User: What shape does this take?
Amino acid sequence: MCGIAGYLQFDGDAASPVVLRRMGEAIAHRGPDGEGIFVDGPLGLAHRRLAIIDTSPAGHQPMATEDGRYVISYNGEVFNFQELRIELEALGWGFRSRTDTEVVLKSFAQWGTGCFKRFNGQFAVAVWDRAQRKLVLGRDRYGIKPLYIRRSGKSLVFGSEIKAILRHPEAGAVLDKEGLFEYLAFQNFFTERTLFKGVSILPAGSWISVAESGATATDQYWDFHFTESEGGAVLSDAEYKEELDRLLRQAVKRQLVADVELGTYLSGGMDSGTMTAIAASELPYMRTFTCGFDLHSASGMELGMDEREKAEYMSYLYRTEHYQMVLKAGDMERILPRLALHLEEPRVGQSYPNFYVAQLASKFCKVVLSGAGGDELFAGYPWRYYRAVVNDDFEHYSAKYFQFWQRLLPRDTAANIFEPIWKDVSHISTRDIFRNVFSADAHKLTRPEDYINHSLYFEAKTFMHGLLVTEDKIGMAHGLETRVPFLDNDLVDFAMKVPVRLKLGNLGEVVRLDENEPGPKTAKYFQQTRDGKLLLRRVMEKYVPADIADGVKKGFSAPDASWFRGDSMDFVRRSLMGRDARIFEFLDRTAIQGLVGDHLDGRENRRLLIWSLLNLEQWLKHLEAGNWTSQ
Assistant: This one.
């Protein structure tokens, strides 16, 4: 893993080594092991190296082919690089290093943009073709590694993080009001927008080619496709289980390749537990890392959020060297300024516990395995999917699912809440943003299983993508590479074809359920959490204790609902109700403070909204102080 940045001038001006070094310095935390720049007329590349495979100087970047035609700045790991190297050697290519970087570079030289389809891994890459005078930027299938772009009439600027782009003299750090509107609708970005005006993210599974003249070509080379076989299951249930077990082991083993220390996150749940169990069976010495929470002021469901005891037990079973930390309410307040600077744009839910556990892991390892992706691939959130199972057509389905994904603000209050900037955002239809996520064949939906698969598609494209972008920023803030074995290509291809009946067990009952009927009958299905990931649970019984494999789904989350009403109440009031709060340049003070007050007074649980507003307030402080451009 590394950090990449660069730019291409369209006006004929030469790229500046000084600017490139400033861009690289902005993301120095991503690559403390080395730096480099390359200039070829209007094109400049910058690189920061985190040495993982072949830590020798042979892996220095930017790296060029022997003839000098192709030059690469690359961030990531391609786990099938050894197989690709053998194939390339058979085609006549030689190699000077043991790195996957050189394999990626020569794969591009051999196959052009077609190489991206061959890669099994996580990457963001920039390749300059000196002969054709064009720059190609590409991103992995799932969006594990981010890549941001800012285009103007004079240049295209890119970087692993936005702060690198903002070091370019043409870029300015300005809030995108339309991006703010989108974020507060979904607590995420469903388009390529960010909170910074003019800066977008390259979509996952895509590449863009930009010529010296400014001419551009783009392509989405891969997309998710969850399917339900018309002719019934191709495999028996036992065969599905056996194949999933084989692919899980294969995925973890593939991602253990490294010339540095490697560990795993161990949250106490089944996904990270299974990753750890398989990894520990392959390596003689494993380190594991857990973050727990002080629950003295917690209440209700939040009393079950500390899973240290389960993690410790699994560490005992797998004989790992185990490290843990305990967070209290004040830890969120202390880390928020630093966290907001690294996140650059808040996405999905709270993330400061992840920041702390990444910091812990980075003291012992350079690489850590994560259990992310299991829920999105194998239907780990049944209470979400069941809300939109029986529908008249796609429009009916998308309308219902859209209502559920309005995560932060009460519906039909946008004009009031965004009153200070309403004239700038009133033209935006969040309903259309939501609907446009779905693929072109969205109207070919007839069965409940089709709608479930469409929901899985939606969440992989949006919710999981937000988690991955956040996880990248959090790990790389500490020079820590996070790997995601669930997003191995072979495993994903298999998961998308697993029948819904092997993921969700109560679909038939939900189909017969009247969603309009009030009371506990609907709550039984819309809130229960043991129903999802059925096939995965059966496989995981081989690796984790039965009570964990069959346990209640819990997210990795602090007891913020209680903390915001208790230990952190003064901080929330100072941040969001003070006279000098910066968010009220864009949001209506009375409306927002009423919503926050509902939580503080115990009338509603608005912890997600409060977390997002605290992030935005800190983001605006950084903007005002010029920290994005001068740090």
Q: What stands out?
A: Residues 607-625 form the longest helix (19 residues).
